[in-house]
Design brief:
About 40% of the residues lie in helices and about 10% in strands. By secondary structure, the chain is an alpha+beta fold. The chain has 2 domains: about 80 residues, no CATH class; about 30 residues, no CATH class. A hairpin with a 5-residue loop joins strand 1 and strand 2.
Length: about 120
Amino acid sequence: MPRSAHKLASTGKGGFVARKVIPLDVRDEYAKLYNQHTEERLNTGPMPVLLARAKHREWSSEIEARFANIRAAKKGEGRTVTPKEARRWPVSGTTGSPRGWQRTLGRQTCGGTTNGSCA
């Protein structure tokens, strides 16, 4: 599905707004999860245009990931990770204690056990 660019419009008070229509195939599930049925809106408030563009890109990727995750759930496939989530995700070869990464992931797996008895 081609991704169309969504306009970031300026307001009279120095802020920016954008809208994104929720596709029909995900609309019902999206409404259950996020309490929005027809469209999502972004209002940055007063800020410089460069920051507003960055915020718009992050917002747009989050919304698109939500759509992709709903579609994937319908098909029984895995979920899409947003760039914001990916920055928090551990990467192989990362420094730091494995125990800390396991806590980040929400599980304890030490030596093949899952009982939380890491030494």
